[in-house]
Amino acid sequence: MPLTFEILATDGEARRGRLITPHGVVETPAFMPVGTLGAVKGVTPQELEAAGASILLSNLYHLALRPGIDTVERLGGLHAFAGWRRPILTDSGGFQVWSLGGLRTVDVDGVTFRSHLDGSALRFTPEGVVSLQERMGVDVAMVLDECTTWPVERAAAAASWERTLEWARRARAAWQGGPGGLFGIVQGSVYPDLRERAAREVAALDFDGYAIGGVAVGEPLAERRAVVEWTAPALPADRPRYLMGVGYPADILHAVASGVDLFDCVLPARNARHGVLFTRRGTLKIKNARFKDDPLPLDEECGCPACARTSRAFLHHLFRCGELTAAVLATLHNVRYYLDFMAEIRQAIGLGALTDRLARRTTGEDSPEGPDLEVLPVSSDPREQRSN
User: 338: helix, coil or strand?
Assistant: First the structure.
């Protein structure tokens, strides 16, 4: 069954859409929780579904190392293996090309990794990556790409894009058509002409959807957002657009307003495990002593298990004691916050009110910082935003 995508409403460049996959419908704009190995840390598939997740992101590189694609295929594919019944998108390993700089060698035909686990060799080619994802039966497969470092000179970024484009051509030719769809990836660092040219060239290959890669790898906020503003409108309007590895709610809102439909980021789960929680009034650090006697829920408007039954004081107590339940409850809350946030965005687009929400977020009116809340700054380590 091929992917189908329809646009239900627009508000400026923002789109309210519906992506239909072999394992279900994804209402867009949508956030994909990151389950690198097939699961979000500390969260069962049932809990993730109850929180409202309609699609999960997993990582081909990590699954290829363990348990191995042969095992996943033998056990019925990734959905059966992981117990996840809804759509799955798999990242092809392009991010690992960037993040594992000392453990990989890039050549014209692909990438050779040395496993970060035991040093064994793992070879990825454009054709091989497509085949591995098809064998797992995922709903959305990604082409192999080269994600450049930051900073990068224009000439190096251009050469990298030429390699990524050739890999995309080879992946498209190798794609057997299912069971889901194949997305192309646009690279080009922070150079407008490269990004716009890349968007044209990858669109000409007629993929089922398109991703903006190489973002949130260390570049300044203004340049990161400029890349999205240049690239998203240049991609085909009738296909889903995916911004890889971004990010904070304000970044997502900006990208939605630029015409992006799909998002993933490790921030909700990773920050939760460190006691950093997103709420409608701001971001709080639950380990701080000020929460020791706080009887309020994390967020009075949230319906997650943590907010429905526990107080800030109790969650503070669990974190201070090193209790595993603290990370579980915090992760459920943060994931639910992101999924609710996307539902509110979809509703705003349908009502033609996204520009008002964007203005409130820009001026800070949408999430005032109360006296008991502490905002966590954006991490200076880009891996905090892109790996699980």
Answer: helix
Topology (CATH) of 4-264: TIM Barrel (3.20.20)
Range list of H helices, the chain: 45-51, 60-65, 69-74, 78-82, 94-99, 126-136, 154-174, 192-203, 221-231, 249-257, 267-273, 305-309, 312-321, 324-351, 354-363, 383-386
Q: What is the pTM of this model?
A: 0.93
Higher pLDDT, 386 or 388: 388
- The residues annotated as belonging to the active site are 91, 264
Is 320 a residue whose pLDDT tops 60? yes
For residues 374 and 175, the model is more confident at 175
Please, which residues have CB within 8 angstroms of residue 87's CB and are 6 or more apart in sequence? 19, 21, 22, 23, 24, 26, 54, 55, 56, 139, 140, 180
> How many alpha carbons fall within 13 Å on the CB side of residue 29?
35
For 253, residues 6+ apart whose C-beta sits below 8 A from its C-beta are 345, 357, 358, 361
Q: 148: how many CB neighbours lie within 10 A of its CB?
A: 23
Alpha helices in 124-153 (DSSP H): 126-136
pLDDT level of residue 96 (50, 70, 90 thresholds): confident
- Domain spans of the chain? 4-264, 270-363
